[in-house]
Design a protein that fits this description.
It is built from 13 helices and four strands. The chain is α+β, with helices and mostly antiparallel strands and 359 residues long.
Length: 359
């Protein structure tokens, strides 16, 4: 959804338009539409269409940015940190330890149904099952996006100076993500939870995004996924009644992803130096569209069926859950502040973030 030189996916003015059953993000280079199959309600049944409108070259080539010595110092510090504080999940986690029957998969407050009438009606066994399936759904969504992330970072570093600290940290990040994906896969297997995959349309949109997103759009998508999950996992790793396997994997992920977030922020700042207003608007709407897809795909509706709940009622109560909305805004607070600082929180993008309760 970008032209051959890496211009923004949703280019030009980045117009935001409500439409029947969804919304449209329209720009000079493509139109990205998110269309709901359930009367415009965003929680489930969304379909994504990307319609190319122009493929001409622009001057916003993602690989051309003013990388300075000071920028390289950031990568050097991150490399030093990685050398000092990194983990091997294969040895850090006790994979053979039994799972206590009453421990949750995540803090009750982070369950999508916490604070609803349905939660009050559930048995303790159902709550345990639900939270374990919810955390595994989030983990498998994380694996899906980590696969996308690795390809975008590799493409960004293609033919760059291998002696540079930026190049070396980028490969360090990819190595981290490989371990994280294996770690999450083993945790889900240990909990006996099957893979929850994004719906086919979203999966194909991810395939297109990983093949085409560059520069600030790529690193913006990476930052969205990392920032939102970071806040959740900081609570999970301290949860008194949360499974040790979830607390341990969360601790590893939080420590190592903190470096990845710093790297992504630095990359975005570099790309945005001297960027035109049109380019900022294009990037803002593209990142927001990616955020919509990531956040709305985190918890698969199949988790409610697995807990023995009425799926339609559960989805409806999640959609109306004010506690859940408040928790999402909390987890997105630092991300929104950073995007605003970089000029990437526009009126159009803010409207998208509000639809998934990130603002």
């Amino acid at each position: 959804m970008r032209d051959a030189r890496g211009a923004g996916c949703v280019g030009g003015a980045g117009a935001y338009r409500r439409m029947r059953g969804g919304f449209s993000l329209r720009g000079s280079y493509c139109t990205l539409r998110l269309i709901s199959g359930n009367g415009g309600k965003p929680a489930q049944g969304m379909h994504l269409e990307a319609v190319m409108t122009r493929t001409g070259a622009t001057g916003a080539a993602a690989g051309i940015h003013g990388h300075t010595e000071a920028d390289d110092d950031v990568s050097k510090r991150l490399l030093d940190s990685a050398a000092t504080l990194s983990y091997d999940p294969a040895t850090e986690i006790d994979w053979d330890a039994p799972l206590p029957a009453g421990d949750y998969g995540l803090n009750a407050e982070w369950s999508t149904l916490y604070g609803t009438r349905l939660w009050d009606e559930m048995t303790e066994e159902q709550r345990v099952t639900l939270t374990r399936h919810e955390v595994c759904s989030i983990m498998t969504t994380g694996i899906w996006f980590e696969m996308i992330l690795q390809q975008m970072v590799l493409r960004d570093q293609y033919l760059k100076n291998p002696a540079g600290a930026e190049f070396r940290f980028a490969l360090t990040e990819i190595a981290d993500e490989c371990r994280h994906s294996i770690m999450f896969a083993r945790a889900c297997e240990k909990m006996g939870v099957p893979q929850y995959r994004p719906n086919p349309v979203i999966a194909q949109a991810g395939r297109l995004f990983k093949a085409t997103a560059r520069g600030e759009l790529a690193y913006g998508g990476i930052l969205v996924a990392e920032e939102v999950l970071d806040v959740m996992q900081r609570d999970w790793m301290r949860g008194g009644n949360v499974l040790d396997i979830v607390r341990g994997t969360s601790r590893i992920h939080v420590v190592e992803e903190s470096r990845h977030m710093k790297f992504a922020r630095q990359q975005i700042r570099e790309r945005m130096r001297g960027a035109s207003p049109a380019r900022r608007r294009a990037a803002a709407t593209g990142i927001a569209a990616g955020a919509y897809v990531i956040v709305s795909s985190m918890v698969h509706p199949g988790v409610y069926t697995a807990a023995g709940l009425d799926r339609e009622r559960a989805v409806a109560e999640v959609r109306a859950n004010e506690h859940r909305k408040a928790m999402m805004r909390t987890s997105s607070r630092h991300l929104m502040a950073f995007l605003a600082e970089c000029g990437l929180l526009t009126k159009a993008s803010a409207a998208v973030y509000r639809r998934v309760h990130m603002l």
